[in-house]
Amino acid sequence: MDTESEGSRRYVPALVIVLLVLAIAGLRYFVFAPDPIEVRVEPASRGRVEATVTNSKAGTVEARRRSRIASEIGGRVIEIAHREGARVVTGEPLVKLARDSHEAQLSLARQGVEVARAGYEDACLRRDRARRELARTQRLAESSVASADRLDELQYQADSARVACDGSRAELERARAQMGSAETELAKTVISAPFTGIVAEVNVEVGEWVTPSPPLLTSPPVIDLIDPTSIFVSAPMDEVDSGAIRAGLPVKLTVDSRPGESFTGSVLRVAPYVLDEEAQNRTLEIEVAIDDPAVAESLLPGTSADAEVILEARDQVLRVPTSALLQNQSVLILEGGELVERKIELGLRNWQYAEVRSGLSPGESVVIALDKLEIEAGVKAVAAEPAEADAGDGTGIGS
After folding, report:
1. Angle at 330 between CA 325 and CA 335, to 5 degrees
2. Sequence-distant (≥ 6) Cβ neighbours of residue 24 within 8 angstroms
3. Which of 98, 134, 218, 256 lies in the 20 to 30 Å Cα band around 120?
4. Domain 54-62+227-312's class?
5. Is-above-0.90 flag for pTM?
6. Distance of alpha carbon 246 from alpha carbon 377, whole angstroms
7. Angle between helices 148-187 and 100-142 (to 10 degrees)
């Protein structure tokens, strides 16, 4: 009996220890267990995914037809026919210069033409008279009435009159050329639109003196004229993408002056060489035509723009946000209140969405924000309340 009591007393401490361990474990896992972390999830769904490349530096809205018109002659401005923002047609006057001296030069040239014409007519009359006198004398010489010396003298006079007539004709042509030059100089007093467009800038005022640009130098333009139908976007692309970009590819455009909007276009031209002005950032210049002419006309040249060239696109493919991807091409799935890592096979991708070829089923809850260190496989988690989604087509912009 004493032996049984002694054995019972021996097992009591061990039992107490076991009970304490169980109590601590229960407190740890039930009473003091950490709350599940909140994670942002999104169901895997089908949609459009695009493979794209974007410009490595800011692009620029430009006008293919843009004329910074300078004056061809010096003169005082007497009239500005159109101000900034005015629409003008080809040949319409923009700025007029004083023309008094040029009109005087033209009048003088016209008088010179009249004088030269009179001299030409007189010289030709003298030539004709000399020819007739020579012909009469030649007939007399055949009858031995006129001497050979007289015949030689009249021949010389006829030849001299012919040369004088030819010289007078040349003088008349020179006078006419001088008149044409004076007319051209007079026409230069009116600066006209070389094409239909919009006046972007006027750099003179009435009463100011303008001068033409000296050789090898450029003077400020009098008028800056832009053709709004020739607007395009010039964008520098990274040299590594030069083999993938070709004319005709679709493009999405965003412009800093139109936040929240995007426009469609296409690659119009790809430069045949890579710019290497900066050895660490070599670029390939492309030109993008804007599909909507109304949009193109509304954009101001010089505005910053970004171009996203769409290399390939697939519709109705299973996709997940690119932010959900782990570096080993896997994602975290919220399954039964716990995060589970899932290996997937990727297809096309951009910075917003990635195509999932295998490893995932539509509707599975994928963790889309990996912004906390404690978000990892095996952690208890719950889905956070969904935030309002941004408007958009879900294709993403970027590379």
Report:
1. 100
2. none
3. 134
4. mainly beta
5. no
6. 43
7. 160
CATH architecture observed for domain 37-51+314-383:
Beta Barrel (2.40)
- What tens digit of pLDDT does each residue of 331-387 get? 999 888 889 999 999 999 888 899 999 999 999 999 998 888 888 888 898 888 765
pLDDT in tens, 294-339: 999 888 888 999 999 999 999 999 999 999 999 878 999 988 888 9
Residue type, 385: E
CA proximity to 152, closest of 165, 166, 141, 167: 141
| Whole-number Å distance between alpha carbons of 215 and 94 | 25
Residue 106 class from Cβ within 10 Å (0-12 exposed, 13-18 middle, 19+ buried)?
Answer: buried
Checking DSSP bridges between strand 190-192 and strand 209-210, what pairing results, if any? Answer: unpaired
Burial of residue 276 (number of CB atoms within 10 Å: 0-12, 13-18, 19+): exposed
* CATH fold for the domain made of 66-97+190-226: OB fold (Dihydrolipoamide Acetyltransferase, E2P) (2.40.50)
